[in-house]
Amino acid sequence: MDVTHYVRKGKREKFKEGVTLDLLDERKGHPKKNIVKYALKCVEDVLPSDGYEFIIVPTNSYQTEEVVKTLAPVSGNAIFFIFAANWEGADFIDRLLPRERYLMGYPDGGGTIRDGAYWTNLGGEVHLGEVDGKPTDKLEKVKSLFARADIQPDVQDNILHWLWLHNAMSIGIWAGFAKYRDVKTFLKDKELLRECYASTKELLELCKRRGVDLKKYPEIGAFNLPTWLFIPLFRWLYTYNQAMQRFTAHAADSLQEARENYNNIMRTADEFSFDMPHTKAVGSYLSPKGQQ
C-alpha cells in the first residue's frame, strides 16, 4: 500500500530523515513492542492529477473543516475518512463533500512525542460508519483496506451517536486532568476524580437528551458503577494499561481541542436548558487560570 502524508508548508524538510516510532502494536499476530524507523513520504501540495483513492483526515476536531475545505477541491474522486472527534454533526462536512465521498470514524490509537520518538499505540480495531448508517460499496472498500492491515472494522449503525458518546465520555475527565496536566497528581486527587465521574454522568444524560440510545453502548458501563468502585478501577487503568497510557497521552498537549469541544457541548446543554454543574466545575480547569 502506497501511503503519502500531507503536511503544512515548510514541514516536509523536517521529516526528510523519517521519524522514530516507539509503537505498542495491539494487532493479533504482530510483535507487541516495537522501536522502528519510519521513512514517511511527505507532500505539501495535492493536485487532482495525483490520483489519491483514499484520504484519512486525522485532525483535532477544530481543524477538520479547514482541512476538508483545503483538500476537497483538489482531491479528484478520493474517498475521505474523517478520523476525528465530533460533537457538531455532519452538516459542515456535507457543505464541502457529497456523502458518497466520505465516511466518519475514530481510531483505537494515539500518543505523543517523547524523547524525540513518536510514543504511540496501534489498536486492533477501527470504528467507522456511514452518516446515514446504510451499507455502501465504499464502506466495504474501506473495511477491506483496514482488514488487510489486520485492523478489524467496527461498523457503527449510527456513527455520529458513537462519536458524540465518546466525546462525552472523554471531556469531563480531560477537563479535570487539565487542572494538573500530570497523570500521577491527577490520580491522587480523589475529589477531582469524583467530580470528573459526576461530570461524565451529566454528559451521558445530555447525549440521551440529544437522541443517543445509551443502552446500545456497553462501553459506558464503568460510569454505572458506584464511585467507590469506579475510582480504583480508573486509577488502575491509567497506571497499568499501556494502551490507555499512550492513546490518552496527547491530552496535556491538546487543551485547545478540549476547550473547543467543551464550549460546543455547553452550547448544546444551553439549547436543551440542561444544567450541568459538575461539568461547569471541571470546565473551569480548561482556562489558564484554572490550571496549577
Structure description:
It contains 10 helices and 9 strands. The radius of gyration is 19 Å and the shape is globular. The mean pLDDT is 94. With 292 residues, it is of the alpha/beta class. Helix 6 (190-209) crosses helix 10. The strands form 2 sheets. Strands 2, 3, 5, 6, 7, 8 and 9 form a 7-stranded mixed beta sheet that branches. It folds into 2 domains: 5-157, Rossmann fold (3-Layer(aba) Sandwich); 161-290, N-(1-d-carboxylethyl)-l-norvaline Dehydrogenase, domain 2, CATH 1.10.1040. Helix content is 39%, strand content 19%. Strand 8 (117-129), helix 3 (137-148) and strand 9 (152-155) form a beta-alpha-beta unit.
Reconstruct the topology from this structure.
Elements: E1 5-6, E2 19-25, E3 33-38, E4 42-43, E5 54-57, H1 64-71, E6 79-83, H2 91-94, E7 102-114, E8 117-129, H3 137-148, E9 152-155, H4 159-177, H5 183-188, H6 190-209, H7 227-240, H8 242-247, H9 255-271, H10 277-283
Oligomer: single chain
Range of strand content? 15-25%
User: What helical percentage do the residues reach?
Assistant: 25-40%
Radius of gyration: 19 Å
How do the helices and strands follow one another from N- to C-terminus?
A: EEEEEHEHEEHEHHHHHHH
* Helix count, DSSP H or I runs of 4 or more residues: 10
Average residue pLDDT: 94
